[in-house]
Backbone:
């Protein structure tokens, strides 16, 4: 990945072949609506409908790129981090579990939908138990570990962007 003054380039293609960015190999600053440095790896919202992941070591460069191009740097609630919490190699107190479920509900994922998503994602996450983390598992982990096809990719994007405020502005 390379960050220039006006675009982000992926000379070898983007991580996930299901993304249009894999073929175009670039994202213009005008196609980015927000950058989130608190996901792992850092991410941006592309064309209001896709979360694109960037190298972790690029945080400082991304902050400068965002500032120079008037792109908001946000700390939007990470839906997939909370969906994947049961798959962490960590014990959570009951109040932490309840708080996470409440936060997911406030961000567009009802308890019944959460159960369905965890069942669907759980198959992938459990198969990969040998590489489980104890601090963070997010959308990038799920996408990297699952048998990924186009419909599943866009389903995961829809879930991850459920709390994205400008989603109604899709053109």
Residues:
């Amino acid at each position: 990945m390379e960050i220039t003054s006006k675009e982000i380039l992926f000379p070898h293609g983007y991580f996930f072949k299901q993304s249009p960015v894999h073929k175009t190999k670039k994202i213009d600053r005008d196609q980015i609506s927000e950058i989130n440095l608190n996901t792992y790896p850092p991410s941006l919202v592309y064309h209001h409908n896709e979360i694109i992941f960037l190298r972790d070591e690029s945080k400082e460069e991304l902050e400068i790129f965002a500032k120079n191009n008037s792109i908001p740097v946000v700390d939007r609630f990470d839906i997939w981090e909370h969906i994947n919490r049961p798959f962490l190699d960590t014990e959570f107190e009951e109040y932490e579990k309840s708080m996470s479920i409440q936060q997911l509900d406030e961000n567009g994922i009802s308890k019944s939908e959460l159960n369905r998503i965890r069942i669907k994602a759980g198959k992938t996450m459990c198969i990969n138990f040998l590489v489980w983390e104890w601090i963070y598992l997010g959308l990038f982990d799920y996408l990297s570990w699952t048998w990924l096809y186009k419909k599943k990719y866009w389903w995961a994007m829809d879930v991850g962007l459920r709390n994205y405020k400008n989603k109604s502005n899709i053109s």
